[in-house]
C-alpha cells in the first residue's frame, strides 16, 4: 500500500482540486493507497471540506491537530499515522505536482532505492523568495556535517525501512530534508519544475522560513559554535598586535593612539562577546526545548 502524507493549513481554496489530482495519480500506480491529510489547526473551512471529501473517498484519513503546531510537527503526525509500505510526503500548496507521484513510485521500483527525492530543477516563485532560498541551500550544503542535496524540500517517497528510521528521531527542532539525508540508505532523485501556488498566499512566511533555516543549521552543523572559536582566536590575535604596538610605541618614544583606539577596541571585543552569548543562547534554548520533552503535537480528532 502507498500512503501519501499532506499537511494542510488554511487551504480551503485548493484542497478539493489537490485531492482529486492526488487520487487520480495514485490510481495510476495500480496499488492500494491511503491519503493522510493533517489539518494543522486551520481556521477556515479546510477541515469541513476534508470531511465532505471523506464521505466519498474512504481512502482519505484525516488527522486534525488541536492547534497549529507548524509544518514539521504536522509532517511528523502524518508519518506516525501512515500505514503504507511506501510513504510519499508532499506539501499541501499544490507546488509539489501530484502527477509526479507515479514517477516517484516507479523510480523506487525500478532502482530498488529506499528513498526517492524530488529535486527542484527550477522554481516559479517570487524572485526575492527564490534568492534567499537558494542562498540557504548553498550555505547549508557547505557547512553541514552531513552530505546534503541542494534544491530539495519535503517531496519524496520512502520505503518502510526509511520511514521507520525517520520516526526514530525525537528532536523538537526538526528539519525533515536534513534528517532524510542523515539516515543514509540508497537514495535516488527525480528532477521536476516547481510551479508557483495556484491560489492563496504562502503559509511559510519569511519569518518561518528563516526559523526553519536556523533549525537546520543548528541541528546539522557545528559551524555556528566553530565560528565563535575562530572569532575568539581572531580577537586574541588583534589584542596581541595591539599590545606589541602599545609597548613598541612607549619604548620608541611616541604616544599610542588615544581614546579613539581604546573605543574601537572595546567596541570590537564587546560585539564579539555579545555574538558569542547570542549563539550560545540559541544552543541553550534548543537544549532546553529538548529537555522539556514536550510532545510534538496533540490530536483533536482522527477521521478514518
Automatic annotation (TrEMBL):
It is found in: Membrane. It is a multi-pass membrane protein. Pfam families: Glycos_transf_2 (PF00535). The chain crosses the membrane at residues 227-247, 259-285. GO terms for molecular function: glycosyltransferase activity. InterPro entries: Glyco_trans_2-like (IPR001173), Glycosyltransferase_2 (IPR050256), Nucleotide-diphossugar_trans (IPR029044). Keywords: Glycosyltransferase, Membrane, Transferase, Transmembrane, Transmembrane helix. Residues 3-163 form the Glycosyltransferase 2-like domain. GO terms for cellular component: plasma membrane. PANTHER family: PROPHAGE BACTOPRENOL GLUCOSYL TRANSFERASE HOMOLOG, UNDECAPRENYL-PHOSPHATE 4-DEOXY-4-FORMAMIDO-L-ARABINOSE TRANSFERASE-RELATED. This is Glycosyltransferase involved in cell wall bisynthesis. It comes from Tangfeifania diversioriginum.
Amino acid at each position: 500500500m502507498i500512503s501519501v502524507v499532506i499537511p494542510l493549513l488554511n487551504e480551503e481554496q485548493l484542497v478539493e482540486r489537490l485531492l482529486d489530482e492526488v487520487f487520480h495519480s495514485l490510481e495510476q500506480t495500480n496499488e492500494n493507497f491511503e491519503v493522510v491529510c493533517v489539518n494543522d489547526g486551520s481556521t477556515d473551512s479546510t477541515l469541513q471540506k476534508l470531511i465532505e471529501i471523506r464521505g466519498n473517498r474512504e481512502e482519505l484519513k484525516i488527522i486534525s491537530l488541536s492547534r497549529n503546531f507548524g509544518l514539521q510537527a504536522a509532517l511528523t503526525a502524518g508519518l506516525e499515522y501512515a500505514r503504507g509500505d511506501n510513504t510519499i510526503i508532499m506539501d499541501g500548496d499544490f507546488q509539489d505536482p501530484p502527477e509526479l507521484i507515479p514517477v516517484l513510485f516507479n523510480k523506487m521500483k525500478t532502482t530498488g532505492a529506499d528513498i526517492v527525492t524530488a529535486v527542484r530543477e527550477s522554481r516559479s516563485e517570487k524572485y526575492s523568495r527564490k534568492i534567499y532560498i537558494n542562498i540557504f541551500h548553498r550555505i547549508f550544503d557547505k557547512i553541514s556535517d552531513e552530505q546534503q542535496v541542494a534544491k530539495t524540500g519535503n517531496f519524496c517517497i520512502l520505503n518502510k525501512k526509511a520511514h521507520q528510521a525517520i520516526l526514530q528521531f525525537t528532536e523538537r527542532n526538526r528539519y525533515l530534508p536534513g534528517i532524510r539525508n542523515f539516515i543514509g540508505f540508497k537514495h535516488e532523485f527525480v528532477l521536476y519544475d516547481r510551479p508557483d501556488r495556484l491560489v492563496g498566499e504562502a503559509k511559510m512566511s519569511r519569518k518561518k522560513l528563516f526559523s526553519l533555516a536556523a533549525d537546520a543549521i543548528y541541528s546539522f552543523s557545528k559551524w555556528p559554535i566553530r565560528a565563535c572559536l575562530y572569532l575568539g582566536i581572531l580577537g586574541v590575535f588583534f589584542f596581541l598586535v595591539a599590545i606589541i604596538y602599545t609597548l613598541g610605541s612607549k619604548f620608541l618614544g611616541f604616544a599610542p593612539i588615544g581614546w579613539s583606539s581604546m573605543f574601537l577596541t572595546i567596541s570590537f571585543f564587546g560585539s564579539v562577546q555579545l555574538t558569542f552569548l547570542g549563539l550560545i543562547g540559541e544552543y541553550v534554548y534548543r537544549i532546553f526545548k529538548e529537555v522539556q520533552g514536550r510532545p510534538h503535537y496533540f490530536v483533536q480528532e482522527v477521521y478514518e
